[in-house]
TrEMBL record:
One of its GO terms (cellular component) is cytosol. This is NADPH-dependent FMN reductase. One of its GO terms (molecular function) is oxidoreductase activity. The keyword Disulfide bond does not apply. It comes from Streptomyces sp. R44. Its EC number is 1.-.-.-. Keywords: Oxidoreductase. Residues 5-147 form the NADPH-dependent FMN reductase-like domain. Pfam families: FMN_red. It comes from the Bacteria. The keyword Oxidoreductase applies. Gene3D superfamilies: 3.40.50.360.
Amino acid sequence: MTTYKVGYFIGSLSEKSINRILSRALLRVAPPGLDFQEIPIKDLPLYNHDFDADYPPEGRALKEAIAAVDAVLFVTPEYNRSIPGALKNAIDWASRPWGTNSFTHKPSAVIGASPGKIGTAVAQQSLRSVLSFCNSPQMNAPEAYIQFTPGLFDEDGEVTDPTTQQFLSDFMADFKAFVERVLTVLPPQR
C-alpha cells in the first residue's frame, strides 16, 4: 500500500484552538496510508514582495515543508466571515515568488470547526477561492462544517459523538481516495 505524506495547516495560532483539537481528531480517525505532519505558520513574518529576491529562512522552511508532502489539509476557523490572516499570510508566502507556487498540483481539502451553527462555511468558501487561484486540486465533497459544542471532542482529539466520529472517518477516507486519484493523473510538482 502506498503511504501519502500529508501536510496540515491549522489556521489558528492559538495552542488551545478548537481547530487544533479538530486536527487531532482527524489524525485519530484517518485511514492507514496517510502520514501527517503539521506545517507551522506562526513564525512567518508578514509577506512582502520585497522579500521575493531573498526569501527569509521562515519562508524557505514553509516552501520546503510543502514540497516534502504529497497533499495538504487545511483545518481552519472563521474570522470575520473569512480565513484568518495568519493562514492567508502563509498561503501568500507559499505561492510566491511568481513562478514558484508551492500549491500547484498539490491535492487539498478544507475542514473547520466553529461554535456557530454554520461551522466555518464562509471561511471555507473564501479559502477554496484562494486555493483555486493557486492551482491546487480540491476535494469539493464532502464538505465539512463542524459545529464545535462542549464535549464533542476531548483535548486529545478523542471524538465523543459516534455520528461525528463516523462523519470525520468518512471525510478522511474520502480525502485519501481523492489524493490517490489526483496523484494518479497529476504527478507532484517537485
